[in-house]
Design goal:
This protein has 245 residues and is α/β, with parallel strands linked by helices. The chain is 31% helix and 27% strand. It is found in: Cytoplasm.
Length: 245
Amino acid sequence: MHQDRFYLSYTPETQEIWLDNGEAHHVLHVKRAKPGTKITLFDGRGFEYLAHVTEILRDKVKVFIEQSRAVDRESPVDITIAFSIPKGKHAAFLIQKCSELGIKTLIPIFCRRSVVDIRDTAGEKSERWSKLAIEASKQCKRNCVTQIENLMPFADLVKNACHYDLPLIACTEPHAKTLKHLVREYPAAKKIICIIGPEGGFAENEIRAAEEAGFMPVVIGNSTLRVETAAIAISSMLLYAYSDG
């Protein structure tokens, strides 16, 4: 059985390859693999590779690829979640869970009332979050990896409404429609984005700008949700609503 999964940052061109850096450490010191141990590799582009360990050195591992195959475990709908970054470890939780669910893209945004400002450390955060997305794909057996985009100002994000079949902004405006209602209006949507605001909510001019750009206000429940809860909830609802069958 090829149980343990490891990530390749490239598509292998030969049957014998070396694993090094973090993946080699994982193979050697976490899983304690030995020559002959069977593993599964995936490249984040939809392919997985059944392999076994052939040679172990101090800091790298050679494996032989027995079989490569395209395995599609992705949702038929392409969902992007844009979110105002929550405090503390909640951002990592959001990224981990949305990645496990199968969200295609996550975009951290900076709003007027955002409580976390990572503009000076955005590159470092993005790298760390990308690693979390890879780990989530390992765990849930996705062969693709959620794309973590660079931090984007809210005003820049809303200009992209035309790129989506169903652009949504989660809010509590009196005229906001329920998700059930919008799904009925747009049953064939294939590319969806939903913006999740900060804990203090969107500023009035932000909602107005989003609507003018083409975003539709949506309410996803009767409660006021935390950023990470709202992101996971809307992701789950959209995946269910647009799943096959």
